[in-house]
Write a structure and sequence with these properties.
This protein is mainly alpha-helical. Helices cover about 60% and strands about 10% of the residues. It has six helices and four strands. The chain has helices at about 1-45, 70-80, 85-95, 115-125, 125-155, 175-180, and strands at about 60-65, 105-110, 155-160, 165-170. The strands form two sheets. The protein has a two-stranded antiparallel ribbon. It has a two-stranded antiparallel ribbon with strand order 3-4.
Length: about 180
């Protein structure tokens, strides 16, 4: 009888060991899958830079204190809603041409800016800051052109001839259709 108990005990231990081993392997497989998925997502976010709100965006004033580390800057930008993940921004900065170049100061940034553009502005890159100035200058130029076109269109004088037809004379002295018949 004692022999049977030993055999049942060994069989139970063997089954329990097999179940434990199988559960352990499943847990390891799930952990490896989760680590791989997280690593892929992190890499995707680092290299696929997206603005927080594409389109017009919302302008936000950001103050970067003197002596701030890259991760401190990333936490400030995340708290202002300019980036989604401070660790991803930290990695992007380390892989960018702006590594270690971001400066303290007060900046006006938009939620429509990509992380690289934000880094360029914080680093004082003329190309990144010039984009905003160039677009503002282009908008001013377009507004001036529209104003000049509107002004040129109003430089005509309508006169009425003796026969009652309207004569239009442009500012440059050309005759309108009413004068051509006279």
């Amino acid at each position: 009888m004692g022999n049977t108990r030993d055999q049942v005990g060994k069989a139970g231990l063997f089954v329990a060991g097999g179940i434990f081993r199988t559960a352990f392997y499943v847990c390891v497989a799930v952990l490896i899958f989760w680590i791989g998925k997280s690593a892929y997502q992190f890499g995707y976010n680092v290299f696929n830079q997206q603005a927080v709100s594409p389109g017009a965006g919302q302008e936000v004033t950001v103050v970067i204190p003197e002596g701030s580390s890259t991760y401190d800057i990333a936490k400030i930008l995340k708290s202002k809603g300019l980036i989604d993940d401070s660790l991803v921004f930290f990695a992007q900065e380390k892989l960018s041409t702006y590594k270690g170049q971001m400066q303290a100061g007060t900046y006006l940034l938009s939620t429509a800016y990509t992380p690289t553009r934000i880094m360029g502005i914080l680093a004082g890159d003329e190309e990144q800051t010039g984009v905003t100035q160039d677009s503002a200058t282009a908008a001013d130029t377009a507004a001036q052109t529209d104003t000049q076109t509107t002004d040129a269109g109003t430089d005509t004088a309508d006169t009425q001839s003796a026969d009652g037809t309207a004569d239009t004379q442009a500012a440059d002295g050309t005759a309108g259709e009413g004068e051509s018949g006279q």
